[in-house]
Automatic annotation (TrEMBL):
PANTHER family: IMIDAZOLE GLYCEROL PHOSPHATE SYNTHASE SUBUNIT HISH. Heterodimer of HisH and HisF. It is found in: Cytoplasm. Its EC number is 4.3.2.10, 3.5.1.2. It catalyses: 5-[(5-phospho-1-deoxy-D-ribulos-1-ylimino)methylamino]-1-(5-phospho-beta-D-ribosyl)imidazole-4-carboxamide + L-glutamine = D-erythro-1-(imidazol-4-yl)glycerol 3-phosphate + 5-amino-1-(5-phospho-beta-D-ribosyl)imidazole-4-carboxamide + L-glutamate + H(+); L-glutamine + H2O = L-glutamate + NH4(+). One of its GO terms (molecular function) is lyase activity. Residues 6-201 form the Glutamine amidotransferase domain. Pathway: Amino-acid biosynthesis; L-histidine biosynthesis; L-histidine from 5-phospho-alpha-D-ribose 1-diphosphate: step 5/9. This is Imidazole glycerol phosphate synthase subunit HisH. GO terms for cellular component: cytoplasm.
Length: 205
């Protein structure tokens, strides 16, 4: 059975993510223990809340160092604010430095006629490479569940693994080597979300 360290830094939607991962066959441990993280097969890096608070807790608990180390040696999945934290800088809270694992920044949606912020609810996600094992069984145009006011802008468009439209097109997912991240919440996305989590659990690097 695949062992997954679900990173606990006081900000993630931990129990719903843990429940979903367990449902698709993973052995999940909610932890911030470096030894547990090191011996786990894979890492899931969730995130809910304000970026400034998330980064402060990541640094205080050592989760930031754990993520930096894990991305070099095992599969890592980041969700929502976890994805945003991978980048160099976020506009949230007046400007917050991210982990800098990926080049790029995080920008805020601008409310316009018909566009409310945050972006909340089901939205069509598209552009996935169906030949990649992480997208196995996922339709080319799939609805996933979103809750966010900010979106990632990678410096390298080649990192973008899926896209979505909300006022304008934005990056819905990134994929680089053993690092996979989603702006949407797989754990809230029913059948498609569970399929995606199962694909991550079974993903061989």
């Amino acid at each position: 059975m695949t062992t997954i360290a679900l990173l606990d830094y006081g900000m993630g939607n931990l129990h719903s993510v843990a429940k979903a991962l367990t449902r698709v066959g993973a052995d999940v441990e909610i932890t911030r223990d470096a030894a547990v993280i090191a011996r786990s097969d894979k890492i899931v890096f969730p995130g809910v809340g304000a970026m400034k608070d998330c980064m402060a807790e990541m640094h205080a608990t050592g989760v930031s160092d754990a993520v930096r180390q894990a991305v070099f040696n095992k599969p890592v999945m980041a969700i929502c604010v976890g994805m945003q934290a991978l980048f160099e800088h976020s506009a949230e809270n007046g400007g917050v430095a991210g982990l800098g694992i990926l080049s790029g920044d995080v920008r805020q949606f601008v409310p316009t006629q018909g566009i409310k912020v945050p972006h909340m609810g089901w939205n069509t996600t598209y552009g996935m490479d169906s030949s990649h094992p992480i997208w196995r069984g996922i339709a080319p145009d799939t609805h996933f569940y979103y809750v966010h006011s900010y979106y990632c802008v990678p410096q390298d468009d080649a990192l973008i693994a899926a896209r979505c439209q909300y006022g304008h097109e934005f990056c819905a997912s990134i994929l680089k080597d053993n690092l996979f991240a989603t702006q949407f919440h797989p754990e809230k996305s029913h059948t498609a979300g569970l399929q995606l989590l199962q694909n991550f659990v079974e993903w061989q690097i």
